[in-house]
Amino acid sequence: MRVGLFVTCVNDTLYPRTGQAVVTLLERLGVQVGFPMDQSCCGQPLFNTGYRHGTEPLVLRYARAFRDYDHVVTPSGSCAAMVRENYPRLAAKAAAESRGEALTEAASDAAAKTYELTEFLVDVLGVTDVGAYFPHTVTYHPTCHGLRSLGLGDRPRRLLEQVKGLELRELAGAEECCGFGGTFAVKNPAVSSAMGRDKAHAITATGAHRVCTVDNSCLMHIGGILSREGSPVRPVHIAEILAATEGAR
Amino acid sequence: MSGRQDRQTTPDATPGTKPDTMTRPPGEPRGHSPGGTYLGMPAFPQAAALSTRDGRLRANLRHATHTIRAKRAQAVAELDDWDRLRRAGAAVKDRTLRHLDHYLLQLEESVTRAGGTVHWAADAAEANRIVTGLVRATGETEVVKVKSMATQEIGLNEALAGAGIRAYETDLAELIVQLGGDLPSHILVPAIHRNRGEIRDIFREHMARWGRPAPEGLGDRPADLAEAARLHLREKFLRAKVAVSGANFMVAESGTLVVVESEGNGRMCLTLPETLISVVGIEKTVPSWRDLEVFLQLLPRSSTAERMNPYTSMWTGTSGDGPRSFHLVLLDNGRTDTLADQVGRQALRCIRCSACLNVCPVYERAGGHAYGSPYPGPIGAILTPQLRGMASPLEESLPYASSLCGACFEVCPVAIDIPEVLVHLRERVVEGGPATLRGTRTVIKPARKHTAERAVIRATGWTLDHPGVLRHGQRLLSRTRRLHPRRLPGPGRAWTDTRELPTVPAEPFRDWWARARGDTA
To answer: Is residue A34 a part of any domain in this protein?
Structure first.
């Protein structure tokens, strides 16, 4: 089984620790991970802002980069959703404009083998206990793409429940969007921030020390507000919790 | 009026139990709602920003939407075949829309056979002209109105006023909006932005100008407010010779129109006057009574969280009792253009239940007025730009009035993939492309104000497609990380006004990988 890591442009540039955690975690579970250097961005920020044509080269690049892998694993619910939901849509539109052949092939290939990390762990590897130790109180915010586009359901929770030392706190209004929304955060900053502050208050109210999600882009927004508001809660990607052993056991 | 008429359109939503935190003089239109018209409204981000600073509005909306939201979820969970019902609803609508030309002619024939007269209106102006002419022909100068989205859409009340005809809204919430010189801010609960203290003040101050004044010493108990409205409206029902309505559904096979409501005020209008004029969007057609059955299950549970709505009025031409004269004005007003768009057309499935508004985190904070049309919330964000075209900054901004969280799609009883349509419309804004405007295929130019963004996106896209260049950029960002300011100037302020920037790491992931794995491929 050849597994490729699609680290995503946000993690590559801003959160390398998350990518490192995925590598550590998968290797601990006996999976050999490859990282094709010609990977880039899935194209989500362009596509969701309306630049469909500008996204096309990135779709082709993604498929090319992971051509030789059986599975692609990514620590991002929204990037996985982009590949699985929007690549086929984008290809269909290109086909309607009579120039879709390469895109159709690229999109269907990419969509079929791309997994969000927790999906890959639970569905493909069939594990929920990944041997992690993380002695902190944690609350989990299910991101919108993870929850509604991918249908991750309780997979992240099942993984967290098996982490030794971890105490999981319920988040009120968990299914409500944090307000990030990609370019929405800067195109509608007032509404985005109002949503983010409500989410931040709910997170702080759990009394947890950490808030985790399957997506660092949402965490960048949530964490940015938490820290501006002086909340003690720190954001952490779920991959970093699942990879953690903190020397114990 | 039956004993049930004092119930609210939606439980707890209008006067009911909203927190009373009034801070503004009664009846004074909101800062960003220019009394009585949606024309010339600012783009969504500006209007929405004002709403986010209005603590009372935020509290009213949060309370009301969360209450309805929870009740809807309960009502829907009672049915184990909800998903199949939902798919059936979408399928019936899609099939009907695909053959709309056929069903509309069938409908015209059925209505005519039953004694009604059918008029075709290509746009708002034509519909207003037809209705004004019909009312004038009766010699009347007053009409009573059943709550109707189509007549809001075309600005019928204003057009009638211009012709010296007074239109009285009779839905409780629409009455509150009309008396307050206000605009509706929700499809189902147009006065959702008002609490009961405000409603009491509006009744006290403005009822007299429109007819029977509010009772002396009117308080803010929901039952008292409903009684004041009942007394005020009864006068109108008993006097009116002409009524204007919309319809939730039109059954093509029999020519039957259907109005579903909670108060019974609509039924008063539909039965007492001599002349009834119904203005209905062409997409409200369903082929048969069998199809109607699906929607009479989907609509009440999605909208008022009821298993069945209290009043379902159905009439077929002038057969039976009720009005002697019946006119049906079939309204296009951008619907045919919308139908021509393969992705956007799913918006025409909408049955105006407003479930999408009640779950929308953006609507909850922006309020209905920010959407600049009688169709607020997620459905408004995809309907308004399609019906009106994207001629103004407001319509251009609406497809961006969403974080694409998908909660709207999840609750939509006819499975409109609102996020998909939003992204599709964003594409039309920034890339332009083929569209149908007033029946003519045309190619839209990209919006001008996005020129700078387009340049940035083009550069970003190019960089992302050249990982070598991207890597240089990442390294530059990492090496200069000690110099990064906490607050960005210019457009970057949209981020740093409320949020800290992330700390840039010492090296990007791909450099770590190359170093740790000796892989420089």
So the answer is: yes
